[in-house]
UniProtKB/TrEMBL annotation, chain A:
Non-catalytic component of the proteasome. The keyword Nucleus applies. This is Proteasome subunit beta. Keywords: Cytoplasm, Nucleus, Proteasome. Gene3D superfamilies: Glutamine Phosphoribosylpyrophosphate, subunit 1, domain 1 (3.60.20.10).
Automatic annotation (TrEMBL), chain B:
It comes from Apodospora peruviana. This is Proteasome subunit alpha type. Residues 271-297 are annotated as: Disordered. The 26S proteasome consists of a 20S proteasome core and two 19S regulatory subunits. Pfam families: Proteasome, Proteasome_A_N. SMART domains: Proteasome_A_N. GO terms for cellular component: cytoplasm; nucleus; proteasome core complex, alpha-subunit complex.
TrEMBL record, chain C:
This is Proteasome subunit beta. SUPFAM superfamilies: N-terminal nucleophile aminohydrolases (Ntn hydrolases). The lineage of its organism: Eukaryota, Fungi, Dikarya, Ascomycota, Pezizomycotina. PROSITE patterns: PROTEASOME_BETA_1 (PS00854), PROTEASOME_BETA_2 (PS51476). It is found in: Cytoplasm; Nucleus. Belongs to the peptidase T1B family.
Amino acid sequence: MDHRPQAWGRPRDDVYGAYDASYLQNSGPKTVTQSPVVTGTSVIAIKFNEGVVIAADNLASYGSLARFTDVKRLRVFLDSSVVGFGGDVSDMQFLDRHLNELAIDEAYDAAEPTPETPTSPGTLNAANLHKYLQKLMYRRRNDFDPLWNQILVAGLDAASKPFLASVDLRGTAFTSPSLATGFGSALAQPIMRKYAATEEDAARLTREQAVDVVKECMKVLFYRDARSLDKYSIAVVTKAGVELKENEQLERQSWAFAERIKGYGTQTV
Amino acid sequence: MTSIGTGYDLANSIFSPDGRNFQVEYAVKAVENGGTSIGIRCKDGVVLAVEKVVASKLLKHGANKRIATVDRHLGVVYSGMVPDGRHFVDRARDEARAWRDTFKTPIPTADLASRLGGYMQAYTLYQSVRPFGITAIVGGFDSELDTPVDGEVGSGPKCGAGGKGEGKKHGGPFLYMIEPSGLYWGYYGAATGKGRQAAKAELEKLDLSGSGALSLEEAVKEAARIIYVAHDDNKDKEFELEMSWISGADGPTKGKHQEVPKALREEAERLAKKAIEKDLEGDDDEEEKKEGDKMEE
Amino acid sequence: MEFGTSGSLNEDGIHVDMDRLKKGEVNLGTSIMAITFKDGVILGADSRTTTGAYIANRVTDKLTRVHDTIWCCRSGSAADTQAVADIVQYQLGLFAMTNGKPPTTQTAASIFQEICYANKDRLSAGLIIAGWDERHGGQVYSIPLGGSLHKQSYAIGGSGSTYIYGFCDANWREGMEEGDAVNFVKEALKEAIKWDGSSGGVIRMVVLTAKGADRHLYLPDTDYAVRHN
């Protein structure tokens, strides 16, 4: 401790080194930007004839530490859309709460419940929701305070056609018959494109086919993504609503061939 | 109105020598001119209903809702000056939202009533404002289940949390009525507006707290009937019946405040009309006078 | 250790709490945990506070009361976590008075999270919130560095926790009796203290149930065998 009156109580420079004031003064633009800490990995989704299948595993990593293994990254909006989050979990929670409030605002002017839509039908469909999220994400990046997420929005558009689109921390948006974030864009997307390269292909896929493709992709991701988990959530969005399963386990994995692998070249025993 | 000309009624925040705030009492008069609103708290939910007086034939049928959703599980109906009511609802929504932002949970009905009571009361204190010309009925269903924090991820032990208080019930349906003075009480049945006397008399006949308490669907039908009975005082004007309900998570609205579905409302109205006709026939020989404003404070 | 302004994770994700500290800042390079059990929750912690390799305090109390039966375990910067805990303690006191009922663990966790999330670029605080309330029983919430909120059946934190992930996963059982639960916490913290240079000293525990808060203390010179209060 420094005992000189002008600096009493502060760490001594000769012991601890001079205080690094760069922490306090930052030249350049003001940034409140963080980097992600607790993170989720890929989200993948594919359209089929009547809707969209979307999936993400239940892991929240802390660096390379698989710290939280029960984090549900698929969130339902107004019983009619699903939002899948990759990236920072605290920002995901912020967005989830924000969307929750948006859904309550919708209920202020909810239409009368009918036999077809027994729960209060919202007026925001997945396409509206995606546009909203894109504007929100882009605004936050312009404030140099981005929400560190890659997001997929799955649901139906105004014409009740399957809708699937993505938005990232910069506010960049895409739409495609199949989409994937993070590692999924390298590992899952090529597989999904085999089945749904175009909208026409996707429109020919059945629900069962789409679910199978997604499950296969989750398996590949578990094989090759070191930040993934074999427990995952999967949701199917159709006109009938959202079917969300949050505690799925990867099945029929292929590991037995390891028996034939001996050494790394010439070794045979 | 003995107060007129004494000067003590000219401004809010001035007491008369006998301890009355005339501005508040005038506000109550404004409420007494409004269409009847009622609320019923029964064992498995809350029903809100209002006699929406049709001011003009040019208004669209079923539009211009009078019952407002404040949060998923909360509804408000009011009698009196509609613009005052709209502002009051805005405030209620702000309060519910502020609670959510701080505590990440839905606001309990009691806490909302308390805050709105405080808000109403503040408008009896200052020269610069007038009291609200409404009496509001707040209905809500506080979840009986263990609800997660908004945005929660992860879960506790599968066997459930240990050391819970045994046999205690939490949450349930709640009903409050807030008057222009800021006074509010919790009720089993609440009525305000022009037909409140008749409505209260009918509400008192219902078993709302006892063991054979009304079910939610019965309460919807009673609510419709009571509005029709109360309309007797306002007979020359046409009206629309607007009703909403809130059940628990296992009930028909899944814990949400929603408009009563058309089919059920129309059935309730049909029964209400039938009951009224029967009453009219019976009235000739019975001549039962409906007084008994016992709930008034 | 060099300090940067990035706040980014080490690849191993381990001593990340230290990276976020400014030079000379007092660090709770810590082993903390909280678990649910049959009647409520138990919080546990070591007692070492370090400034670099120097032990600034060897009998620290890292278990902090924010309401009668809602407590937290603090890791990261001592200054930051004390400031946050003080704010939450004030807020919960206010809540109890204005609403006429005690706050729930959820309420406490929400307020903690709001502070940690809104100030994520200024704070280095890794917190575990554990509490008992009549409605929800015992609950454990974890708030790691970025300010996310995780409900857990048990939570471990601080630099020492990385050495006991295996131990805890292998030995954890739901709905333990109090004696077994205390033993689980003690054995886990003993391992953490053994392998983590930044953890050490005594083991403190707080048991929260319907009966209120009960403190435990175990000392290293008796191999943590005897309960001292």
